[in-house]
Every structure is written in structure tokens, then in C-alpha cells.
Amino acid sequence: MDNKERGLNYSITVLPGDGIGPDVTAEAVRSLEAVGRSFGHSFDLSHGLVGGIAIDQLGTPLPQETVAMCESTDAILFGAVGGPKWDDPGATVRPEDGILALRKSLGLFANLRPVRVFPAVMDSSPVKRQLLEGVDMIVVRELTGGLYFARPKRRWQTSRGRRGVDTLRYTEQEIERILRVGFELARGRRRRLTSVDKANVLETGRLWRELAVEVSRDYSDVELEHILVDNAAMQLIRNPAHFDVVVAENMFGDILTDEAAVLSGSMGMLPSASLSGLPETGRAIGLYEPIHGTAPDIAGKGIANPIGAILSAALLLRYSLGLEDEANAIERSVEGALAEGYRTGDIAGQGEDVVGTAEMGAVIAGRV
Ligand code: NAD
Description:
Layout: H1 3-6, E1 9-17, H2 21-39, E2 42-47, H3 52-58, H4 64-71, E3 75-80, H5 95-105, E4 110-116, H6 129-132, E5 136-142, E6 154-158, E7 161-165, H7 172-187, E8 192-197, H8 203-216, E9 223-228, H9 229-238, E10 245-248, H10 250-261, E11 271-275, E12 286-290, H11 307-320, H12 324-339, H13 357-367
Parallel strand pairs: 1-2, 1-3, 3-12, 5-10, 8-9, 8-10
Antiparallel strand pairs: 4-5, 4-11, 6-7, 11-12
Helix pairs in contact: 2-11, 2-13, 7-8, 9-10, 11-12, 12-13
The protein binds nicotinamide-adenine-dinucleotide (NAD).
């Protein structure tokens, strides 16, 4: 069958945001367009405003038009938001509120961060090469509950000084659904699920562990192991190749995924997917973004690494559109470009030639 005959139409909302967001997102779009040409799909791309640029133009980090676009699309490709221009502590609106509100309103409770170390750039990581061989894990972070959202959350003055409180609360349903995402993913991989908690100290940790055991009865083909979060932080560096799928609550996942990013050599390398569940039918709404922020120190210079954004486009094809071959094509292109020696500044070794954002994006898209 001709590729064109197989081709399908998809709508994708593109929210580039601030700083290096627009530069790296443009390269992700370039790879998507290359996939469209090679596989005969048509991607209908609509660009929307979010973050600081939306505050500047419309006075809000998440305009209603952007929410409406996101609600009626197959998937969202997101850049990054924020920057010094909007950092005034007295400001009533902040760019980051835009992404938090979007995750909440679309019910994107599962944040998937695959961590792979490409052999060609292993030496960019501060971790020894022998520990990095075979590293291939997905960290699944709970994204809409726990310490970052629960109330009470406040600071106040007392006669004996200032006090502050945050609340760590989880419901059984919130924990169970994120554990199931972890088990389902493990089933399609090496069948090991590492559940992270702090069951020795926290009640939510004990509930988490109890539910992990209960849910595991539906997944007898997956090996479940429990690990305390402090030990997990150590093992991620001591023995990273051990991990297959790692599942953690919001704050633990936040911290462990930044630590895991070190393995890949640069913040610019890693993609992420935020989903409202795993796509049983091969299609689910999701938001895809590199794990890095707006990198104000290099914004506007054309030197940002676009690979995290491009790999996010691959996750979009896989999880929201069910296009596995197309996702693999992008991932192979990234690997090929790195193997051929193309490097942006953040992953270049001493004396290696460096390319800019657009050239790296063009080389990768050209290989799709
Ligand atoms: P950052 O990720 O933007 O930058 C950290 C360091 O990594 C910087 O030195 C930067 O130059 C480098 N870096 C990041 N991405 C890179 C890339 N693609 N290529 C090469 N180098 C790269 O983190 P930060 O400096 O803590 O935050 C800057 C701004 O981004 C803040 O306003 C923060 O709130 C925002 N932020 C937004 C998101 C998001 O939109 N999801 C996430 C994190 C941070």
C-alpha cells in the first residue's frame, strides 16, 4: 500500500511559550512535518499563546482560547514558560501558572520521563561510562496530587515566629491510577516496576506501598519492588541500569527525574509526556514537552539543544496518535545524528565541532 493511502489527519496544538521554547519547538515541528511527508500523514498544526508571552499580549498566562484549542485537539506540543522578565515577586500572575492550570484542567495526572543514554554522548555525563551502559528507564511521576496541590498550604506569623504548612494528601484512587500506568508500561518493557515511597515515615507512603501490593495482583507477570526514596536517589547513580519503570508521587518524582536527567548528559536531551491515562486504544490526549525550562542564559542565541523537544514529538506520536513506527523513526534519527558526530554546545566534548539549534533540527528531520 502506498504511504499516501495509509495517511491520516491529526490536529496538534503547538504552544511554544518563552525563552528557548519557540526555538526548540520549531525543530520538533520540523521533525513532525518530515514524518508527515515520509509516512503520508497530515498534521494540522495550530499555534497558541501560553506563559509570559500570553501575559504580555493578553494579561493571562493561560488564555481561554488556548484552553479551547487544547480541549479539541489530538495532542499538545509544548515548549517552556517563564523567565526573568516575569519574575517580580510582587506579580499577581506568573507564566508557570499557565502550565500548572493546563495540566490540572486536562487531567494530565501521569508524567512519563523516559531516560535513555545515547552511546555517542555518554562522555557528556558526569557519571562513569561503565555505569551508563544499558540505561533505559521510564520514570512515572504523579502530577496533579500530593504536596504541591493539597490544602492547607500557607504561611503565617505567630507570637513565636513565622510558620508554614504544606499538606501531603493522596486518595486511594489517585495512587491506584498512577500505579496502573506504571504496571501497564512495565508490561510492554522489561517487566520490572520499582515503586518509590517513604513508607518508614509517612502514612501516605504506607498507603502507597499497600496499594502497590494490591494492584500488583492484577499484574503477576510484572516483578514489583519497593524502594525508599532516599535509597532510590542513591541507586539511580550507583546502579541506573537496574531500573526499568519507576513510579513515584509528585514531589519524589520531581526530584528523582532531575537527578536522572544527569545520566543523559544534558537537560536539553530529555523529553516528557503528561497523560490523562495510558492510551488503551492507541489514542489519548497528552501534553509533550522537553524537561528543561526556558534557559534565559542562552535564549535568543540559536544554540539550545532541540533533542528533548524532538524526542517529545516522538512520544506524542507514540502515546497520543498510536504511531509507533513513526515515533521510532524520529528516535532512530536522533541516534543517527549523534552517532554521525552532530553536537550542540551542551553535549560537545573538548575540540568537537558544534552546531546550532536549527542545524541540529534540520539534520535530524533530514534523516526521518
Ligand atoms: P532551565 O532548564 O531553563 O536551565 C537550566 C540550565 O540548563 C541552564 O544553564 C540552561 O542553559 C541549560 N539548558 C536548559 N535547556 C537547555 C537546552 N535545550 N540546551 C542547552 N542547554 C539547556 O532551568 P532554570 O534556569 O532553572 O529555569 C529558567 C526558567 O524556566 C524559569 O523561569 C523556570 O521557572 C522556567 N521553567 C519552566 C519549565 C516549564 O515550562 N515546564 C520547567 C522548568 C523551568
